[in-house]
Design a protein that fits this description.
heterodimer, A: 574 residues, mainly beta, Immunoglobulin-like, 3 domains, 13-stranded antiparallel β-sheet, 4-stranded antiparallel β-sheet, 31 strands, 7% helix, disordered N terminus, B: 100 residues, mainly alpha, 0% strand
Chain lengths: 574, 100
């Protein structure tokens, strides 16, 4: 019986829909409205409802056209009790009052309006249906904003294509007043937790936007406690008797709360002072215990080998409390400034300082300032980098210290900084024609790319404190060094890359061997795969010359290599 | 009052001026593109474009936002942000605190 009723209900809807669509450009609309505890649907018919007057004489020939309107409201296929009246609201033809308001309790199911018949003239009728009758005002969680970074903006605004009216502006004010008074309950479900857990919101939630001026506003729903790290879902739910626009729960899924990456196990063992400062704090403590053969004097003064255990504790520290002290460019400016006022790069260990442990006992303190000025902000920008740095290096006990200052200029020219990887093409997808899905971007394979990054710099430094020089630590000269050169990368299609780097050093610290050059050239060629389970490439590089501090002879090295990776042998993988 | 539609116009104008070829290539789909499509591998030029749109929208409204809010916008918008989402972020940021 129920099946039969539903079948005839959908047949009826089909007939109404077909008849409505056959009318020219019919666009009837219906919205759910509230007036206190009264709920009704305002309906704009197209063609419009007959006004009861004779089209020729203008005389009223039918006083009550509402009695000729036959309309039904359905929820989940069930008929909802209603009454019909001609609308007094400008822009709408009639209203359908919902006499059973219990159907709108909580997260209610959508309503469907079927106008089976309404008069459009003295002897003319039409019909139509409107799926999912909803409010003219929508509320939804939206993008974060500059004023709501930590919270979740719940935006209340006019629906698509809805024009503001007295009712809508009044309704926005009603919703604002309610949301100021009542906060939703909040649940958070982390992808790594078994169950969802309740969370408290901050007590003083901020609102932005003025309903009368902006025709929208949003509440920044900020949690009192930080959300879980990793990926999580969050749901905000207002009470079941909230305004109808707020009765459905507001769910946002797969929110990424990026936690700090996993701390690497190994310590960056590059030279102190040359390591990148990318974190506010990078600290490690190590304890090592090793046994080694050493020679000691015995009672007779003879050297005898003994096995000695050596225990060493090492502190490795990189700290920059303020990675950048300066703010973004002012409006109209295209100059970025970066200032790291204080950075410490240190590695100190227990035990005596000698030649072997020298690298374990260095402390570098300094600061860095960069001006990055953009003269062209296009896809391929032109900019100039001026980097000024000052660093002081000393041993663990601050007995011997040296300073070094450097100024470097790195211009980037738009015409000479166009690597092939910057170029991407866009095309519509062929298999999935979903209009909401972004078109695919694919890299440019054939073409020529160039990347030329010149640099020029000057550095100087000197040992300035020498209280108790260690034999293992050589006192540095007063270093004055000018250097210039650059890196040239050429993409000869996406399959061949030629890279050339050359820097010439003009040394002021010595009258002999004043000019030193460093060159590194390489060619990388990804080779075609000979099977789908393998990839390979070939490379060739040539390195010649020396780099600061020029303590060791220059290199002259040629490298040719071929690398292949292949898996899936015998149909097995691991 | 900067509506999302107005911010979208301003953003389209900035992209057309700063990354004309990419903007033309994206066509009607430009809001669905990551900003890295228009400014590859450069967060600075993304920041300059987004802040130019924000500043223009605020100027039209005759309002301002604190420096911290501008910084937040630059933090929220990166090369990985879709242009359409950037429009929404800027549109919401132009809204002033609701008077109590």
């Amino acid at each position: 019986m129920i099946m039969k009723k539903r079948f005839s209900f959908y047949m009826l809807l089909c007939v109404i829909t077909v008849s409505a669509r056959s009318a020219a450009a019919a666009e009837p609309t219906a919205f759910l409205r509230a007036d206190g505890k009264t709920y009704y649907i305002v309906v704009k018919a197209d063609p419009p409802l007959w006004n009861g007057r004779d089209p020729v004489s203008g005389q009223v020939i039918q006083a009550d056209v509402a009695k000729d309107i036959i309309a039904s409201v359905y929820q989940n296929g069930r008929l909802v009790p209603t009454t019909i009246a001609v609308s007094g609201t400008p822009g709408f033809d009639f209203i359908v009052k919902l006499t059973d308001i219990s159907i709108l309790n909580g997260d209610f199911d959508p309503l469907l309006l079927a106008v089976h018949r309404y008069p459009t003239g003295p002897a003319q009728t039409a019909g139509f249906s409107v799926d999912d009758v909803s409010s003219e005002i929508s509320a939804s969680l939206t993008q974060k904003s500059g004023t709501c970074v930590e919270g979740f903006p719940l935006e209340v605004k006019l629906g698509d294509g809805v024009l503001p009216s007295d009712y809508i502006l009044g309704r926005l004010e009603t919703l604002l007043a309610y949301m100021r008074r009542v906060s939703p309950t909040t649940q958070v479900e982390s992808d790594t937790a078994i169950k969802a857990e309740p969370r408290q919101l901050k007590s003083d939630l901020a609102f932005f936007g003025k309903p009368t001026d902006d025709k929208r506003f949003f509440e920044c729903l900020a949690l009192a406690k930080d959300p879980p790290s990793g990926t999580f879902d969050i749901k905000f739910t207002y009470p079941a008797d909230a305004p109808i626009e707020l009765r459905h729960p507001f769910l946002k899924t797969d929110i990424e709360n990026a936690s700090h990456g996993v701390t690497p196990f190994s310590v960056d063992d590059a030279n102190v002072g040359e390591r990148a400062i990318e974190e506010n704090l990078d600290l490690s403590l190590q304890f090592s215990s090793s046994v080694a053969d050493k020679t000691v004097k015995d009672a007779a003064g003879m050297d005898v080998p003994v096995r000695v255990r050596d225990n060493t504790g090492t502190l490795d520290l990189r700290i920059a409390p303020l990675l950048n002290l300066l703010s973004l460019p002012d409006p109209g400016s295209t100059t970025f400034k970066f200032l790291t006022p204080l950075l410490i790069d240190a590695r100190v260990s227990t035990g005596k300082i000698n030649k072997d442990t020298l690298s374990l006992n260095r402390i570098v303190i300094g600061s860095e300032f960069e001006i990055r000025h953009y003269t062209n902000t296009s896809t391929f920008p032109s900019y100039q980098r001026y980097i000024l740095s000052f660093r002081n290096a000393s041993d663990r006990d601050f007995k011997q210290a040296e300073w070094k200052g450097a100024l470097e200029f790195q211009p980037v020219f738009s015409a000479l900084d166009r690597p092939l990887r910057f170029r991407r093409n866009s095309a519509e997808r062929e298999l999935d024609q979903d209009p909401d899905r972004a078109p695919k971007d694919f890299p440019t394979i054939v073409g020529f790319g160039i990347e030329f990054l010149p640099l020029v710099g000057f550095e100087m430094g000197k040992t300035w404190r020498n209280k108790s020089p260690f034999a293992a630590i050589e006192q540095t000269e007063f270093v004055r060094r000018l250097y210039f050169g650059g890196t040239l990368n050429l993409d000869l299609t996406a399959y061949v890359r030629l890279s050339l780097k050359d820097i010439l050093y003009v040394r002021g610290e010595t009258s002999e061997d004043r000019l030193r050059n460093y060159f590194l050239g390489s060619i990388e060629v990804p080779l075609p795969s000979f099977t789908r389970n393998a990839s390979s490439n070939a490379f060739f590089s040539f390195e010649r010359g020396a780099q600061p501090p020029f303590a060791s002879p220059g290199v002259n090295a040629l490298k040719i290599g071929y690398r292949v990776q292949w898996d899936g042998w015998f149909g097995k993988r691991r | 009052m900067a509506t999302d539609a107005r911010v979208k116009e301003l953003f389209a104008g900035e992209l057309a001026a700063r990354a004309s070829k990419q903007f033309e290539n994206a066509g009607e789909n430009w809001p669905k593109k990551d900003l890295g499509f228009f400014f590859p591998e450069n967060e600075n030029t993304v920041d300059l474009c987004a802040l130019a749109v924000l500043d223009k929208a605020l100027k039209e409204d005759g309002t301002t936002v604190p420096k911290k809010v501008r910084n937040n916008v630059a933090l929220l918008i990166s090369t990985k942000t879709k242009a359409g989402n950037a429009v929404k972020i800027i549109g919401l940021t132009t809204l002033q605190p609701t008077p109590k």
